[in-house]
Amino acid sequence: MKAFLKNYREAPRKVRLVAGLVKGKPVSVAISELSFLSKKASLPIKKLIDSAVANAKNNFKANTEDLFIKNITINKGNVLKRSMPMSRGRAFPIHKHMSHIEVTLEEKKGASKKVKQITKKW
């Protein structure tokens, strides 16, 4: 159960700060923490987690309450190379970095089995 965001226009170093905050947490806790976080990358990561939850629900029939964030990988994307004009005809380089973000969700191991056992007893 994965979702990808490619060519997100922020440096991977800054996005990894937000990703490290929610890695390994249940989806509901991660989304609530990202709602109140004052980093630029929090909204796109929140949307990406919502997309991964929708993928899990529609494609794998997973229970959304049992999902947790197994891994968030932030890789280096393309680099836009620009230049800042300076005095005397010089130009200094500016590198605008991009990030590729991948979210992997997984279902808790024992959660779905307990539900099946309860339904069999009824």
CATH topology group: Ribosomal Protein L22, Chain A
Number of extended strands: 3
Radius of gyration: 19 Å
Q: What is the terminal separation in angstroms?
A: 31 Å
Q: List the secondary-structure elements in sequence, H or E.
A: EHHHEEH
The tally of structural domains comes to: 1
Report the uncertain regions. 114-118
- What is the CATH superfamily? Ribosomal protein L22/L17
Walk me through the structure.
With 122 residues, the protein is an alpha+beta fold. It has a single domain (2-121), classed as Ribosomal Protein L22, Chain A. Helices cover 41% and strands 35% of the residues. The protein has four helices and three strands. The protein has helices at 12-22, 27-35, 42-60, 111-121, and strands at residues 2-8, 67-85, 91-107. A three-stranded antiparallel beta sheet has the order 1-3-2. The longest helix is centred in the middle third of the chain and has 19 residues, at 42-60. It is elongated and about 70 Å long. The model is unreliable at 114-118 (pLDDT under 50).
What is the element layout, followed by pairings?
Layout: E1 2-8, H1 12-22, H2 27-35, H3 42-60, E2 67-85, E3 91-107, H4 111-121
Antiparallel strand pairs: 1-3, 2-3
Fill in the keyword field for this structure:
alpha+beta, Ribosomal Protein L22, Chain A, 3-stranded antiparallel sheet, 122 residues, 41% helix, 4 helices
